[in-house]
Design brief:
The protein is α/β, with parallel strands linked by helices. The chain has 10 helices and 7 strands. The protein has one domain: 3-Layer(aba) Sandwich (Rossmann fold). Helix 2 (28-37) packs antiparallel against helix 3 (58-71). The longest helix has 17 residues, at 207-223. The N and C termini lie close together (11 Å).
């Protein structure tokens, strides 16, 4: 049982480290953090911007926090849920990996709620994103042990001694040919009863619902201030870069990697969160 390895259950909450009274969600606090750390996202206000593949370069790093908050539904709530679950599964002396850590937002959100004896490791293949993450984590004043690594998940095995691995909108950028190997590497790098927290954009097998959910998603982006030009240009730029799976494909991938407990913890039309426990 998950709780059997936590000898301080009663003293420290349900499983592990005691949570603070509240975690940041889709709130004014998250909005203020976003505004203070990011320039406004205007990368795709030129129709020609869609002619090139999307890249995580310096221009993207400067606007990424604003971009992800405006482009991912309930992003603040997703971060809160990741913190809630990570706090239960992270164990002192182990590592927590954020694969595709981008600008370090998840690590900062996790810091107050995860046991301070857990070492944080952020991994990304973009030097520019890691520079921004290092700047933010330093400004945050993180006291625990932490490290940022530049690595290409297509080629490198980086997970070891892990109690928690987070992939927040990362697996969808890994070429499908490599995803089985990546999932297996994560499984092998997790300790027993360790957890993978996976958030992904989805494609839906039923074409009716797929079109409907895409329309709802674009309507959300309009509400968040994106123009038709920006929506269309970014869609073209991501076409060969972001390759979503169907929900059942993600579950099958995790099962084949060896995970014995797999459950969806979040769903918004064509976005999903899955927890998988070793």
């Amino acid at each position: 049982m998950i709780g059997s390895r936590r000898a301080v259950v009663k003293a420290r909450g349900l499983f592990g480290y005691t949570l603070p009274p509240s975690l940041p969600g889709d709130s004014q606090e998250m909005s203020q953090q976003r505004e203070s750390s990011s320039e406004p996202d205007r990368l795709f206000d030129d129709p020609e911007a869609g002619n090139s593949d999307f890249v995580f370069d310096n221009r993207t790093a400067r606007v990424f926090d604003d971009m992800v908050n405006r482009s991912v539904p309930l992003y603040g709530e997703i971060q809160r849920m990741l913190g809630e679950m990570a706090a239960d599964f992270a164990t002192p002396g182990s590592n927590l990996f954020d694969l595709g850590c981008a600008t370090g937002t998840s690590l900062i959100q996790l810091d107050p709620v995860v046991d301070p004896g857990v070492r944080f490791v952020g991994v990304d293949n973009s030097a520019e994103m890691l520079d921004k993450a290092r700047e933010k984590l330093t400004a945050h004043g993180m006291q625990r042990q932490w490290e940022l690594q530049q690595a290409d998940l297509h080629r490198e095995q980086v997970v070891e001694n892990a109690s928690v691995v987070i992939m927040n909108l990362t697996l969808q950028f890994i070429r499908p040919l490599y995803r089985e190997r990546v999932a297996r590497n994560i499984y092998e790098g997790l300790e027993e009863q360790g957890a993978l927290l996976l958030v992904e954009k989805l494609t839906i097998g039923d074409s009716l619902f797929n079109r409907l959910f895409i329309n709802y998603y674009y309507e959300m982006k309009r509400r968040h201030g994106y123009s038709e030009v920006e929506i269309a240009a970014k869609r073209e730029a991501l076409e060969n870069v972001l390759i979503p799976y169907r929900p059942e494909e993600n579950r099958e991938l995790l099962a084949q990697a060896g995970f014995s407990h797999i459950e969806e913890f979040f769903r918004w039309y064509n976005f999903s969160g899955i927890i998988a426990v070793k």
